[in-house]
Every structure is written in structure tokens, then in C-alpha cells.
């Protein structure tokens, strides 16, 4: 609506990140607990809650970045506590898109993003990979696209572009909701590069001698607890993946250059033919 200003009071509160999982909350003081750790897909800290402000997190968790392929940058923290996802910045002629976020961005990392042209659009696959989206939104004010199904997890953010199942926020970059791991879990497909940023829909174990080569692949409802997806959840995954012509599959942790649609569909078909499981499957056995 013209002249409408969204309520900004909550976004003026300071932000805190959980040391156990990296989930950010806005609160008038250090939060009493973390809703992400209390979710069934995670575990609570064994020695009590610890929350860091942005400056404290920046001091504790160094931020690094690298251009993995022309126009695709990865940002990560090392060392880091919590889940520790990576952030990806994808450069396009129509503007830059951020997908996922690392636990905290240093000031130097934010300045580097600004030097690359900032961010026109921002999204994430699911709340485990929200990371420091709050920093990116506060600094660059991008369109924030998140599935409506996961809106309940976005209290620290201002969602400007909610979507249901499919959205193309920039030409050639497609968001597709898979559900499964979370109700709003989504993947990002880069059509021109044929890369699928799959979030936590899939997990890989990488070759110790080649950080881009996956050895195994698996799919989980809950990684920490080893819970498989249901048959209907796998069918939905298959319906989404079958429409996307990808030759690389990148998670928030492992950019697997040697796994594409054929191997992913073979994994799902194998589980649908027997029973769902969460065990790693050798990638070579799916070819």
C-alpha cells in the first residue's frame, strides 16, 4: 500500500546469536533460551545457554571468503561453534543474490560484499541456515524472500517477499520449496550455471583430498538425530529435483561438483523402492 510503513519496533532491538546453534534473535536483553535448539531437529546445550552480541560474535568467530567459481562467493567462519553454515553470494547482471548466511559476518566481509555490489535479493533454504541474515538485511536492505511455511522462524527479520512454492526473484535464479526437512525448506537453482543450492535436503561426505568431490550422499529429516524422511516427503523432493537440470549440488557445507540430478534421483528412487533411511550411500553406486 502506498505510504504504508511496516512496524519496525522489533527490528530496532539488539540481535543475539546462540552459541550452541547460531540462530539469531532480537531481544531487549540476552534471550532466556533458543527456540531452534529446543526444536526436535536439534539438541539443547549441555552446559546452559550462551548468547553473543554482534561485536562479540565477530571477535570470537573469524570470517573468511573465497570465489569458488566466477561470480559465486562463499563466506564462512572458522573456527566456529554451532551449526556453522556457509553463505553464498551469486552475482548476476540484474544484481546480486545472497543465499544462506554464515554465523557472523566480519566488518571486512561486509565491506567486501559492498565492493561486489551489495545484495539486491536475499534468501535461505531453512532456519538452520539463516545464520546472520540479520546483518545482511541491516546493512544492504535487500528484498528478503522466504517461504511462508517457515514464517514463524523469521521474527528477527523483515520478510518483504514471501512465497508459496516457486519464485524467481532474479532472472535465472529460481527458489523451489521442497518441504521435508522443514515445512518451508527450499532450494535455489542457478539455471545458467546448472548449480543446485540444496540446503539441508541432502548431505555429502567429501573426499579428504578434494574438497569439491563428494564420496557419499544421504537425505535426512533430522541430521543430528539421524531421522529419515517419510515416503511422501521423498516423493515431493523427487518432483522438485526432476524439474531442475543441475550438474552440481551445493549444501551449506559442501559444494559437491561431481553430483547432479541423475545421482540425486537415483538415491531417492532407491529409497522409495525399499524404505527411507538416513545412511550415507556411496555416490559411485548410484551411477
Fold and architecture overview:
The strands form four sheets. Strands 4-5-6-7-8-9 form a six-stranded mixed β-sheet, with helices on one face. It has a six-stranded mixed β-sheet with strand order 10-11-12-13-16-17, with no helix packed on it. Helix 5 (about 230-240) runs antiparallel to helix 6. With about 290 residues, it is α+β, with helices and mostly antiparallel strands. It has helices at about 35-40, 55-60, 105-115, 135-140, 230-240, 260-275, and strands at about 15-20, 25, 50-55, 65-70, 70-75, 85-90, 95-100, 120-125, 145, 165-170, 175, 185-190, 195, 205, 210-220, 250, 255, 280. The chain has a domain at about 195-285. It contains six helices and 18 strands.
Summarize the structure.
Helix content is 18%, strand content 28%. The chain has 287 residues and is α+β, with helices and mostly antiparallel strands. The strands form four sheets. It has a six-stranded mixed β-sheet with strand order 4-5-6-7-8-9, with helices on one face. It has a six-stranded mixed β-sheet with strand order 10-11-12-13-16-17, with no helix packed on it.
Amino acid at each position: 500500500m502506498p505510504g504504508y510503513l511496516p512496524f519496525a519496533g522489533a527490528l530496532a532491538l539488539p540481535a543475539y546469536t546462540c552459541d550452541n546453534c547460531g540462530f539469531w534473535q532480537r531481544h531487549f536483553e540476552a534471550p532466556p533460551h533458543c527456540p531452534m535448539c529446543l526444536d526436535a531437529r536439534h539438541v539443547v546445550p549441555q552446559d546452559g545457554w550462551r548468547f553473543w552480541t554482534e561485536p562479540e560474535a565477530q571477535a570470537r568467530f573469524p570470517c573468511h571468503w573465497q570465489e569458488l567459481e566466477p561470480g559465486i562467493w562463499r563466506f564462512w567462519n572458522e573456527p566456529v561453534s554451532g551449526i556453522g553454515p556457509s553463505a553464498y553470494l551469486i552475482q548476476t547482471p540484474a544484481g546480486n543474490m545472497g543465499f544462506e548466511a554464515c554465523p557472523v559476518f566480519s566488518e571486512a566481509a561486509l565491506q567486501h560484499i559492498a565492493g561486489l555490489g551489495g545484495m539486491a535479493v536475499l534468501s535461505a533454504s531453512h532456519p538452520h541456515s539463516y545464520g546472520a541474515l540479520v546483518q545482511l538485511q541491516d546493512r544492504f536492505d535487500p528484498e528478503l524472500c522466504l517461504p511462508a511455511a517457515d514464517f514463524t522462524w523469521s521474527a528477527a527479520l523483515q520478510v518483504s517477499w514471501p512465497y508459496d512454492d516457486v519464485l524467481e526473484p532474479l532472472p535465472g535464479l529460481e527458489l523451489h520449496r521442497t518441504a521435508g526437512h522443514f515445512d518451508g525448506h527450499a532450494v535455489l537453482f542457478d539455471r545458467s550455471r546448472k548449480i543446485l543450492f540444496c540446503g539441508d535436503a541432502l548431505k555429502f561426505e567429501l573426499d579428504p583430498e578434494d574438497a569439491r568431490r563428494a564420496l557419499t550422499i544421504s537425505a535426512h529429516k533430522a541430521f543430528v538425530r539421524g531421522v529419515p524422511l517419510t515416503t511422501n516427503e521423498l516423493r515431493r523432493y523427487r518432483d522438485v529435483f526432476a524439474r531442475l537440470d543441475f550438474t552440481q549440488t551445493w549444501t551449506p557445507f559442501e559444494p559437491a561438483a561431481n553430483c547432479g540430478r541423475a545421482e540425486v534421483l537415483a538415491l531417492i528412487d532407491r529409497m522409495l523402492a525399499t524404505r527411507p533411511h538416513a545412511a550415507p550411500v556411496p555416490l559411485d553406486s548410484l551411477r
